């Protein structure tokens, strides 16, 4: 600034007050529609469609419109819950893989118009859109490219069908903020009765260039989601977790390879050519669709907070799913969970300790870019340095000693994502001590660390692609969370309950009743040798605060079971530890239960590992009383197991069995079937 002053002295002081030259952008930078979208950060998914009624995760495509029959559908309830939870929009499954559509499309009979709901006169997209508008929520559309119902799937005609339907959806319902193209593609299906396997090349089959152009033409502001963009990309898992290092930059053109390669681009790329930010999607229950048997598996508050910090806190937007139930409502338990999360987020960020602190930077760029921009609550004002000053630091003086455990940073990414490494220090007796460190920042980064006290702290920007350009720095003290205890069982039926901290008390039940403070204290292992539900709470004896309930449904203990295999590692499939696994020799997993029991189902936990293999995709279950004559009791697919390797259940008519065989008819990757944990169900 100073060096430009003298030639203009004659123009008077006002000229000196002009802003310094803004920093040059570092490419790639977000498009306007991405800038508008990144502010939303938190929005919801509604998975509600045919699967809700067929009790599946992926329908086969042979379902009948008559099956779609919600009894008390109220889209306004969904919108109210989303709004109260602080969500800025909702995205609905207009068409899932089974092909059934929620609006009276002119291009198919497989739709609500042939269902009993609203006597076939209903249009659920209309009701959804109206409810969202009423509550001030943005409207998003999930449209599955894969269609297991359509007879033409795999042929060019189907791509025309897709364009026609998208045209209906993007023309008739007003402004759409996000169009969600699911990455799951091709495979077996009903396909109008053909009942066969149809593989497509998802990069070329759908004619993406024309498809994208169509969406742009009809909804210029809509963000298009898919595994790799073009506008927003998948985080690469369904846990809702982004990565400590998360770049919004992506080599978009070379990464549209889809899932098999997602490890290569899940974190983005520092030198990525395009701006394709991350969205973390996760369901509030294990499944995306509603299943009554998951009513007790709604995510706990600590789970949801972990998701919050690992998505929004790691440069990602967060998309939490509600599996709307068969009534057509967000289940009470899901509502309770999301509202608890919203309240906790508010609580964690209630007071920004940096709001009234004084900020001093090692250097600034001049007028308009001072460190006072860092705590004005405005993303669009920022502090930055002179060209070339890539390393810089900001000191924050609270005026008195404060206690804190969160640091929030926002980069002004409208000029490109830059920071590669930063640290937080506090002043202790005149010298600096490291508290925490991080890599990328992006739109928002939140660091969590143990409670720490200081009057002065310093944020060091250690390495950046160019000068750091920072919008906001916040410091918070989030109240501690009480975690529900962990309930585990050994193969011989000994149940152990553990609280996250040793000074907490535990109370539990085994009879299905709700555990209560002061009633039935846990004092050590106990036996659970039949199908029983164990529930427990942790209580802080000093404050009296109680955790949420932990609940585990145990079935028969596995101590006398034998896997039919000479491989000693086979016990790892029945060791009550989901993190150990067994690779089958011939895709058959067979167990001798030691004696005959009345079985109503089996459970299969796929291998839980960073690089898993051999997930069973198609299965058959056979049982035997004597080990020589066998009977098939179930056959089907473990839908969506590749993207979401959660525990799978197979239910069948009650049958006496001593021997059980889980046969893998197909694995997701063609490798030998693996088993993380196998169990039987007798209840
Ligand atoms: C996946 C789908 O296969 C799931 O069923 C679900 O819709 C999830 C959001 O995306 O790819
Ligand atoms: Ca600011």
Automatic annotation (TrEMBL):
Arranged from A to Z, the UniProt key words for this protein are:
Glycosidase, Hydrolase, Signal
Stated EC number for the protein is 3.2.1.51
User: Cross-referenced InterPro entries, in alphabetical order?
Assistant: FA58C, Galactose-bd-like_sf, GH, GH29D-like_dom, Glyco_hydro_29, Glyco_hydro_29_N
F5/8 type C domain mapped to chain residues:
342-478, 589-683
SMART domains, per database record: Alpha_L_fucos
- Primary enzyme class: hydrolase
The protein's matches in SUPFAM superfamilies, at most eight in alphabetical order, are given as: (Trans)glycosidases (SSF51445), Galactose-binding domain-like (SSF49785)
UniProt record similarity statement: Belongs to the glycosyl hydrolase 29 family.
Q: Which PANTHER family match?
A: ALPHA-L-FUCOSIDASE, ALPHA-L-FUCOSIDASE-RELATED
Name of the protein this chain belongs to: alpha-L-fucosidase
